[in-house]
Write a structure and sequence with these properties.
This protein is mostly helical and 227 residues long. The protein has one domain. Helix content is 60%, strand content 0%. The relative contact order is 0.12.
C-alpha cells in the first residue's frame, strides 16, 4: 500500500485515524469480494466445481495473488461454516481448473472488459454459463464501485476539517491504490453524491415552449385581479 501522507499536511492524531479508515475500507472491499465470490459459486455450483469458480472469479476481477489468496481463504471458510451448519459438505475436486486465455492486447494496448472476460472464459464452457459469469462479474464491478464511493465519502466526513473535499477523495484513492479507470468514476460519483447533499436547491425557471420561425409569442393570461 502506498504512503497516503507523503503530500498531505495532517496532524498526528488525524494520521492515525486515516490509518484506521484505510483498514476499515480494505475490510469493506474484502467483504464485498467474498460476498460476490460466494454468489458466483452458488450460481454455477451445479456446473462448475467451487474451486474452479473461485479461480474464474479472481481472474475476471484482475486480483493480485495476495488478494486472490485472501478472498479464496475467506470464501472457503464461509463455505465450510455453511456446510457445518447444514451437515452437507461439498465434494472436493482435485482436477486443475481450466487454463484461461493468455494476456494479449490489441493494437493500442487496451482491451474491452467484455472481450477480456470472453477470452479468459474460453474452453468447454457452455454459452449460457459464460453469459451468467459475465453478468455476475459486471454486477460485482458495480458493487465494488459502490463500496469505493462509500469509502471515499467516509474519508470526506473524517477529514473535512483538515482537507478540501477533493483532497480527501484523492487521499482515499491513493491510499487504496484504486486503478485509474475505477478511480476516475469513483471520484466523480462521490462528488456528485456530495453535490446532492450540499448544494443549495434553487427553483429552475420555467422555460417557454419553443416557437417556430415567425410565430408570435403567446399572450400572457392576466390574473383576475389585473383585469
Amino acid at each position: 500500500m502506498r504512503n497516503p501522507f507523503s503530500s498531505k499536511d495532517l496532524s498526528e492524531s488525524m494520521r492515525r485515524r486515516v490509518e484506521l479508515a484505510v483498514a476499515v475500507s480494505q475490510e469493506r472491499l474484502l467483504n464485498t469480494h467474498v460476498d460476490h465470490a460466494l454468489r458466483l459459486i452458488q450460481l454455477v455450483g451445479d456446473q462448475v466445481p467451487f474451486e474452479n469458480a473461485l479461480t474464474i472469479y479472481t481472474r475476471l476481477l484482475r486480483l493480485s495473488d495476495d488478494e486472490a489468496r485472501i478472498i479464496t481463504t475467506r470464501a472457503l471458510a464461509a463455505l465450510g461454516e455453511q456446510a457445518a451448519r447444514s451437515d452437507i459438505w461439498p465434494e472436493l475436486v482435485t482436477e486443475e481448473p481450466e487454463e484461461v486465455a493468455p494476456e494479449t492486447g490489441t493494437a493500442n494496448g487496451h482491451r474491452s472488459i467484455i472481450r477480456t472476460m470472453r477470452q479468459r472464459l474460453r474452453g468447454r464452457v457452455k454459452d449460457d454459463l459464460r453469459r451468467w459469469v459475465e453478468l455476475a462479474a459486471a454486477r460485482t464491478e458495480v458493487a465494488l464501485l459502490d463500496t469505493h464511493v462509500e469509502n471515499a465519502l467516509s474519508f470526506v466526513e473524517m477529514l473535512g476539517h483538515e482537507l478540501q473535499t477533493t483532497e480527501a477523495v484523492e487521499l482515499y484513492l491513493e491510499a487504496l491504490e484504486v486503478r485509474d479507470s475505477v478511480a476516475e468514476i469513483t471520484y466523480y460519483l462521490a462528488l456528485a453524491r456530495l453535490a446532492d447533499q450540499q448544494l443549495p436547491h434553487r427553483p429552475i425557471p420555467a422555460s417557454e415552449p419553443a416557437r417556430g420561425p415567425g410565430q408570435p409569442r403567446a399572450a400572457r393570461v392576466k390574473p383576475a385581479a389585473e383585469v
